[in-house]
Design brief:
alpha/beta, globular, Rossmann fold, 5-stranded parallel β-sheet, 14 helices, 2 domains, about 35% helix, binds glyoxylic acid
């Protein structure tokens, strides 16, 4: 589609699998950052101004100001399924195609949601801290009691493909599944999701013994779980967030956990990460992880490969030539195509 004779220049903002990135090299000039750097907005703008394509991560927050001088930039390939780090309307207005890495991480993220749920329900990380601190001389029979899963209710807020993958795993634990999503799933899909039942948001909050968040962060979902929502949950409930920081009001969550208004939480994502609300760090009834739900060897490689495929396809190479598989703003691609038919 892009017929400029010169090789496109691709900027890769963070170190990732070099052998996967090397797939770009027959067709593109690649500049890959050798270390994780949090670029200041002006540095980021300068990097973007010097490339035709950028493969970026969540730490790159890109909006109108960052692309104002990026005259060559045609595609931003996000190394993530969520793209709240990108101002998509601003990038679209600048004629820049945006892609993500949807789907290849569903199963790994679903596994991790269960790891957090179980870890929080069974107090696993607090028990480990206690053990490492040398306290295990004898364990009282009634110490470290946690929560059972069987015959309880798993609530899933956000029933996209990650939510569905989480639901499919519930049968083995003997959990009933309820969910809330803007749109109800077709009944045949609900059946494959452990017979998940659509409920209102209010019912989800009130009935879930384990509430897992798997919805995207948008202006509408910011603080979807705040003090009011937490007050409607059971005091015995466990909250798990593998979605995005900002969906939960972390200050309100820390207060609810501290006051016993919520039993426990398992969190992979935080408001303002990598900085955490200090009150969360002081609590023992929360399992904290540094945004690693998709971090398996296979999945992070697959995410990198998909970003590379999206870029190559945009520039007319590979099996998806001209049709990058994960375009978030297809209207921009269509506009470019209409202006310059392949
Ligand atoms: C990770 O959080 C992602 O959106 O892929």
């Amino acid at each position: 589609m892009d017929e400029r004779p010169e090789r496109p220049r691709v900027w890769v903002s963070r170190p990732t699998f070099a052998d996967v990135i090397a797939r770009l090299e027959p067709h593109c000039d690649v500049v890959a950052e050798p270390a994780e750097v949090k670029f200041a907005p002006a540095e980021l703008a300068a990097k973007l101004a010097a490339c035709d394509a950028a493969i970026v991560g969540l730490k790159e927050r890109i909006g109108a100001a960052e692309v104002a001088g990026a005259r060559r930039l045609r595609i931003v390939a996000n190394l993530a399924v969520g793209y709240d780090n990108l101002d998509v309307p601003a990038l679209s207005a600048a004629g820049i195609v945006v892609t993500n890495t949807a789907d290849v991480l569903n199963e790994s993220v679903a596994d991790f949601a269960w790891a957090l749920l179980l870890g929080a329900a069974r107090r696993m990380t607090a028990a480990e801290r206690w053990l490492r601190a040398g306290h295990w001389h004898a364990t009282e029979f009634t110490a470290w009691l946690g929560l059972d899963l069987r015959e309880r209710t798993l609530g899933i807020f956000g029933m996209g493909r990650i939510g569905q993958a989480i639901a499919r795993r519930a049968g083995g634990f003997g959990l009933r599944v309820i969910y809330h999503n803007r749109r109800r799933l077709p009944p045949e899909l609900e059946r494959t999701c452990c017979d998940a039942i659509w409920v209102t948001r209010e019912a989800l909050l009130a009935e879930a013994d384990f509430l897992v968040l798997a919805l995207p962060l948008t202006p509408q979902t910011r603080h979807a779980i705040g003090a009011a929502e937490l007050s409607r949950m059971k005091p015995s409930a466990v909250l798990v967030n593998v979605a995005r920081g900002g969906i939960v009001d972390d200050a309100a969550l820390a207060a609810a956990l501290a006051d016993g208004r919520l039993a426990a939480a398992g969190l992979d994502v935080f408001e303002g990460e990598p900085n955490l609300h200090p009150a969360l760090l002081a609590l023992d009834n929360v399992v904290l992880c540094p945004h690693i739900a998709s971090a398996t060897h296979g999945t992070r490689r697959a995410m990198t490969a998909l970003a590379v495929t999206n870029v190559l396809a945009f520039f007319g190479h590979g099996e998806h030539a001209g049709r990058p598989p994960n375009v978030v703003n297809p209207e921009v691609l269509a506009r470019l195509r209409a202006a310059k038919p392949a």
